[in-house]
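Supplementary Methods S3. Input chains for the assembly prediction are listed below.
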Amino acid sequence: MTYCVGLRLRRGLVFMSDTRTNAGVDNFSTTKKMFTWEVPGERVITLMTAGNLATTQALISLLEERSKTPSERSPSILERPTMFEVARLVGATLKEVIADTTGAGPAASSRFKASVIVGGQVKGGLPTLFLIYPEGNFIEVTEDAPFFQIGEAKYGKPILVRAYDPDLSFEDTIRLLMVSFDSTIKANLSVGLPLDLQIYANDSFTIEEQSRVEADDAYYQSISESWGDALRNALMDLPPYKRA
Amino acid sequence: MTYCVGLRLRRGLVFMSDTRTNAGVDNFSTTKKMFTWEVPGERVITLMTAGNLATTQALISLLEERSKTPSERSPSILERPTMFEVARLVGATLKEVIADTTGAGPAASSRFKASVIVGGQVKGGLPTLFLIYPEGNFIEVTEDAPFFQIGEAKYGKPILVRAYDPDLSFEDTIRLLMVSFDSTIKANLSVGLPLDLQIYANDSFTIEEQSRVEADDAYYQSISESWGDALRNALMDLPPYKRA
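Predicted structure tokens for the full assembly:
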């Protein structure tokens, strides 16, 4: 499984992804699921993947390759004029990879599906996020739905729904995301540390912060440990139940 | 879908279930999913169901019918000597219902599976809870795993994991469960109010409290409204993130 969140604030975009991949509980490893294309001053595009690893690796490889060989027929992710066109390109490439796999040849019992969050900003446009489906189509964030989750989304969703605010600082957003990831990691063995983290500030056209939260990260540990107490205290602050 | 939780405390058992059933988002209604058999002074047995409604209704009807006709070959739920034997009876009856449905005749695209939480106390034994699978086998609560959830379990699990304590009072447990149900109801349309609630105190052999939390219940509303603020305050109490 996987857990990735992409979130739009008034001041910019924040991305967080876990790094665990597994094919059964006895076969797991650490793999990066966050990828970035940057043309400083002109565009920053960040992409996170969930689903079949062969599919998502082929997707990234094709996007990479085609951004380096301009003679390739398919246009480069570095040259699409808008984020909408970037999303269309990623969607078409994802669909192409899945179609290639599911055509002739031996069939696997597991499916080859994958989902993608892609976000960023291209000069001349606004920063935005898209959620791309295995079918190649996609939806964009809105004021009413300002974040996307892919993978194991349920455990970490209630805290995001309750505590997200478009005016959050980057620091408070990271703290919120760490709580959301911690709830998920505690509940599903197939989501695991380290976490990749990226911040993009509006109209900067460069990555503001990119870092990896390792399993022994002192700050993550302190969040994980204090959140249980904080939740219990929050419960105690609620009005008490009185029996009839 | 459905959401039910059965929870063992040092002082007794607490059960909560929602009441929404649906076959598609345009076809839903309110159905009780909590059922009780009581022989005051001798036994209290409470059962909650999730899954195919035809299956769970048939299960309850068979258990009811067989508790009223002593000549029926299968033994009555009111006469099994221990909670373990009650769980075996419920498991066998559930398996029988599913086998009857999946035999000859037209096949449905949806499956006939159901899961059950059964708990209570029979004189001479301890109060306990079992989670019964569609295959008819079951597991029992332990010190390490002191509660069971069936149905849409993920959204409401993190708060249970963090805030459950075997020494909780019944009142604090109900408050905790309401928060867990509220998180689920906010995230999944197929889980809905009203909620059924039941409390059993150890060695009382009678139901201590049984009530229904309606959609306009003032206490539930106050919990639902204050929990967002409480969570945001809890987040603010966590150590702040400092960027490198």
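Chain B is about 35% helix and 25% strand. The first helix of chain B runs from residue 53 to 68.
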